[in-house]
């Protein structure tokens, strides 16, 4: 069970570009996962700056405005792990952080959050919610973070607060995102919706219209190709653990601002020549655990690329110009990570000059290949 301090730390974290591990397969670490215990240390000072007043100040024990069984602090109400079947009543109106995770709530009713106009973050993770009233979020005029993961939703809830910045809705049962689902959410920055059984056809044209996202994750879904109508503002796109089989020429044409692209653990056999030229600012490319038979073409032309994960593919040969440009001063950033282990290529057959634009030889990972 989380302590209130741990809950606050996770809740107030923001999406960020973090340095990748060079030894482990790619995993999303853009922002915290509520299901993980033992994260972080004492950042009370930072949290207090984010929420006005002292969020850690205990309420007097004789105050009776705290819902039964919950733990209340100034602006914070923690009602997790109580086997609740509904949102509790009498939540203090000045609440900014409300934790309802790990309960048995099945429905959000119209007046469940009535009067909570100051609410900043709401966690409903790991409940059994399948029904959401279309006006339940109307009072939440200042809500920034909504964590709705591990429930039984079949659609994205309607009428999300326009103030919302971060939405986590992974591991539900969503198969369709209708046109206009995110309309009016111009402040939205991050959406995490992996672990839903959604196919490419489940995204209606205009589903993401109006969004200016930096971060989007649709991993562990049923995608067979890169979606073509995602926000063109994206800096991070994570589509790992799907069934994508190829990257075609026009697949990346909308996503010119990408810094990080995660396509690991798919079925990719082919990357069409020229397709990577649409993402000239890319810093990290994750293609591990696919079915590639050669290093993708176009890597030497990517001036800012620093990390390439290609381990656990079927690459049998690495040529001298697969990674680095032939001319001097053409690459703005040296590589600090290239992984090739788990491929049927003999490292002693690769010419040393192949990695002439790598900052440190320790950044190159070959390892042994085992069938």
From TrEMBL:
It is found in: Secreted, Extracellular space, Extracellular matrix. Residues 65-97 form the LRRNT domain. Keywords: Disulfide bond, Extracellular matrix, Glycoprotein, Leucine-rich repeat, Proteoglycan, Repeat, Secreted, Signal. Residues 1-23 form the signal peptide. GO terms for cellular component: extracellular space. Coiled coil: none annotated. InterPro entries: Leu-rich_rpt (IPR001611), Leu-rich_rpt_typical-subtyp (IPR003591), LRR_dom_sf (IPR032675), LRRNT (IPR000372), SLRP (IPR050333), SLRP_I_decor/aspor/byglycan (IPR016352). Disulfide bonds join 66-72, 70-79, 324-357. Belongs to the small leucine-rich proteoglycan (SLRP) family. SLRP class I subfamily. PANTHER family: AGAP008170-PA, BIGLYCAN. May be involved in collagen fiber assembly. This is Biglycan. It comes from Anabarilius grahami.
């Amino acid at each position: 069970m989380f302590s209130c301090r741990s809950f606050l730390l996770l809740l107030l974290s923001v999406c960020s570009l973090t340095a990748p591990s060079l030894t482990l397969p790619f995993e999303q670490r853009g922002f915290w996962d509520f299901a993980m215990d033992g994260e972080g240390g004492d950042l009370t000072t930072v949290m207090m700056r984010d929420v006005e007043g002292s969020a850690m100040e205990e309420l007097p024990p004789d105050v009776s405005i705290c819902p039964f069984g919950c733990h209340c602090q100034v602006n914070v109400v923690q009602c997790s792990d109580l086997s609740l079947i509904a949102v509790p009543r009498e939540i203090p109106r000045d609440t900014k952080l409300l934790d309802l995770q790990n309960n048995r709530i099945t429905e959000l009713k119209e007046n469940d959050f009535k009067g909570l106009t100051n609410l900043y973050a709401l966690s409903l993770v790991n409940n059994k919610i399948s029904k959401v009233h279309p006006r339940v979020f109307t009072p939440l005029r200042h809500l920034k973070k909504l964590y709705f993961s591990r429930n039984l939703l079949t659609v994205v809830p309607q009428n999300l607060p326009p103030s919302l910045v971060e939405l986590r809705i992974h591991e539900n049962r969503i198969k369709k995102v209708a046109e206009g689902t995110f309309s009016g959410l111009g402040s939205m920055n991050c959406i995490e919706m992996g672990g839903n059984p959604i196919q490419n056809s489940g995204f209606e044209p205009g589903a993401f219209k109006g969004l200016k996202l930096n971060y989007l994750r649709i991993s562990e879904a049923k995608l067979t190709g890169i979606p073509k109508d995602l926000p063109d503002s994206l800096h991070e796109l994570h589509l790992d653990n799907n069934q994508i089989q190829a990257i075609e020429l026009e697949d990346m044409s909308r996503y010119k601002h990408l810094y990080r692209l995660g396509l690991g653990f798919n079925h990719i056999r082919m990357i069409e020549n020229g397709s990577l030229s649409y993402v000239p600012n890319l810093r990290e490319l994750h293609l591990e655990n696919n079915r590639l038979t050669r290093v993708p073409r176009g890597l030497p032309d990517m001036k800012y690329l620093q990390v390439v994960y290609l381990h656990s593919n079927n690459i049998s040969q690495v040529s001298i110009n697969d990674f680095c440009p032939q001319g001097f001063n053409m690459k703005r950033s040296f590589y600090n990570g290239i992984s090739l282990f788990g491929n049927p290529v003999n490292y002693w057959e690769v010419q040393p000059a192949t990695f002439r634009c790598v900052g440190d030889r320790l950044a190159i990972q070959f390892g042994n290949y085992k069938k």
